[in-house]
Write a structure and sequence with these properties.
This protein is α/β, with parallel strands linked by helices. The protein contains 19 helices and 26 strands. Helix 4 packs parallel to helix 7 (168-186).
Length: 624
């Protein structure tokens, strides 16, 4: 008798811990006993690489164990598409996701693992005056559903993390740890993460990121001048800067870009002697490192004798200097009477400047500029942001870390007013780029009736930025040489419960009648108020496919089939399938096929034949 094959597809997010354990089992099979990792044996295998001392350097806090366990709990939620709130839903590759970012990051693990080029987040600074998390954040999806009114239960109280609370720093660290951990999984090997923070938690954040990303992957602590004037009512010193911590997934793989050469620097280059090599500037040819052989007098064309400055010498030997003079690379002034200087040609310098770790407000903007930007776009909104980030600041990060034409994905899972979306869209417009954004924002309440949550305000900001650019384009000839049209759209998704009824063993009735009633409820396991589109996108996520994957609707032997990514995946949501339809799907030569489990009804023979036929053609077959 053939053993029944389980074709059911897992309806949870990726098991992050399970994947790591599997790698451990592969690397150290001798440390596995009864399927479990034997820590004592593992220690013996690793030998001196194990630190057996009781006192270790590291970051510890009350609740760290709970924060780590929060990572290990898979999400059973999904992301519901909202075309009516989107712009160009069917064609855009930009995403705006409304929901608790911890749950969303879990749901993105399969589809976006190792695909994100740059992450920027501006998390709560833990000043005690802002939203941190729902009170019982460990409940994850259910707590979020109660908060957003998706389940009938008491409302959830939002907390601020007062300094008087017993676990002031611990609460913040417990909130940040799982999010930063899951975010790292999404980064490409050459990806980077920027995190804004102030002096309240920068020391803890640095240690936290050292632990998650590895201190060897720390790049810089960037100082951003967020205010252009001193705060005269400051009790001690005026707080005029923020920190931006920059870490890589793999520092050896990351290559930073040069920044565009500022116009002020380019203006220094002139061509005072009509040199055919073009504009140039001049530089000092004396150096502090003294060498007697380079300490000699120079005669200018006018006959003046010039000695190097006291305790210095020339940068070149006498022979080398004569060669430079003959090549017209030494400038003695218009009258040939000045101290000699080296000509540096604009055409010979590197195309750009190396980024520095101090970002002045004149170059990247300040908080007040960010407020004015938001006010200009959202003039009818009364929502106040205390520390918004200017678009120029985010553009600087994009310039350093992304490439215009590589379809780089940028993730911001504390999206706020959606400044990052505006930065990506406008940066793409400047250099005909095709960067893509994924923004995640909790629907934190506002005091605005038109935009009741921060997420609503962020979506509207993106719509208005897009509309403004489209209005600018009206009546103009499109002279841009693009391989693909400019992406002026975004898909909206909202976190919700799964489209499928998921059996909860803890709620199984004890009596026979109750059990029978519950089994009947689960006979049709698709929720009645969910559409095929809702189900389709959940299956894309759970199958590890992008939310922006190309979808084509086809008819196969009279049945509707969705062809994903040029037919590599076929999804059939018909309530009944036939042997002809199965053969038709096989004939399309996909790598994977997903059907509803009840599509086979009570026809076990058809299901068995389907499994065998798919296997014969090396097609992965799954049911839900």
């Amino acid at each position: 008798m053939n053993k029944k094959v389980d074709t059911r597809m897992p309806l949870t997010s990726a098991d992050v811990n399970g994947e790591r354990l599997e790698r451990l089992r592969e690397l150290f099979p001798e440390a596995v006993s009864d399927g479990k990792i034997d820590l004592e044996r593992l220690g013996q295998v690793l030998g001196e690489a194990v630190d057996e001392g009781r006192e270790r350097y590291g970051l510890s806090w009350a609740g760290k164990g709970d924060a780590i366990r929060a990572i290990q709990v898979p999400s059973i939620g999904t992301l519901i598409p909202c075309p009516d709130e989107s712009v160009d839903f069917d064609t855009t590759e930009n995403l705006f996701i409304e929901g608790d970012n911890l749950e969303v990051l879990k749901l993105l693990q399969k589809s976006y693992h190792g695909k994100v080029k740059m992450i920027y987040i501006d998390p709560p600074y833990n000043t005690g005056n802002e939203f941190i998390y729902p009170d019982n954040f460990r409940d994850g999806l259910q707590e979020y559903l109660r908060f957003t009114g998706q389940v009938d239960d008491e409302g959830v109280k939002l907390s601020t993390n007062r300094e008087t609370s017993g676990r002031y720093h611990s609460n913040w660290l417990s909130m940040m740890y799982p999010r930063l951990f899951l975010a790292r999984n999404l980064l490409r090997d050459d990806g980077v993460i920027f995190v804004s923070i102030d002096d309240h938690e920068v020391h803890n954040l640095r240690l936290l990121m050292n632990e998650i990303y590895g201190e060897e992957n720390f790049v810089a602590n960037i100082i951003w001048q967020k205010k252009f004037a001193p705060q005269n009512d400051a009790r001690y010193l005026s707080d005029n800067h923020d920190h931006i911590l920059l870490f890589c997934r793999n520092k050896e793989a990351w290559k930073r870009n040069l920044l565009p050469t500022p116009e002020s620097v380019l203006l220094r280059y002139k061509n005072l002697d009509n040199d055919p090599r073009g504009p140039w500037s001049s530089g000092d040819i004396s150096v502090k490192t003294y060498s007697a052989s380079n300490d000699y007098p120079i005669e200018t064309p006018s006959g003046r004798i010039v000695e190097p400055p006291k305790s210095r010498c020339w940068a070149f030997s006498k022979n080398r200097l004569e060669g430079l003079i003959s090549d017209n690379r030494i400038w003695f002034g218009k009258d040939g009477n000045n101290v000699p200087r080296l000509k540096q040609f604009q055409s010979e310098i590197q195309d750009g400047v190396v980024p520095v770790t101090i970002w002045k407000h004149e170059e990247v903007g300040h908080n007040q500029e960010a407020k004015q930007e938001l006010k200009k776009i959202m003039c009818d909104v009364n929502v106040i942001f205390d520390t918004p980030k200017p678009v120029r600041l985010l553009s600087r990060m994009l310039q350093i870390s992304t490439n215009a034409n590589n379809q780089d994905i940028i993730l911001d899972f504390f999206a706020g007013s959606a400044s990052m979306a505006q930065a990506v869209i406008e940066e793409n417009r400047k250099n005909q780029g095709n960067r893509k954004f994924i923004l995640v924002q909790f629907p934190e309440p506002t005091n605005d009736d038109d935009y009741p949550s921060i997420a609503d305000l962020g979506k509207e900001r993106i719509r208005r930025v897009i509309q403004k650019l489209k209005e600018e384009d009206e009546g103009q000839l499109d002279l841009k040489d693009r391989e693909k049209p400019e992406d002026l759209g975004f898909k909206v998704f909202k976190l919700s419960s799964s489209n499928f009824k998921i059996w909860d063993a803890g709620e199984t009735p004890k009596d026979e009648d109750g059990l029978s009633e519950q089994l009947n409820l689960y006979a049709d396991h698709v929720l009645p108020d969910r559409s095929d589109r809702d189900i389709l996108f959940e299956l894309l996520l759970k199958a590890g496919r992008s939310l922006t994957a190309k979808i084509e609707k086809k008819k196969v032997e009279g049945k509707t089939v969705y062809s994903i990514e040029d037919g590599t995946l076929l999804i059939c949501l018909e309530e009944r399938v036939t042997a002809k339809a199965v053969r038709g799907m096989v004939g399309l030569k996909p790598r994977q096929v997903i059907c509803l489990d009840n599509a086979f009804g009570r026809n076990d023979q058809l299901k068995t034949n389907t499994v065998l036929e798919m296997r014969d053609h090396e097609i992965e077959f799954r049911t839900v």
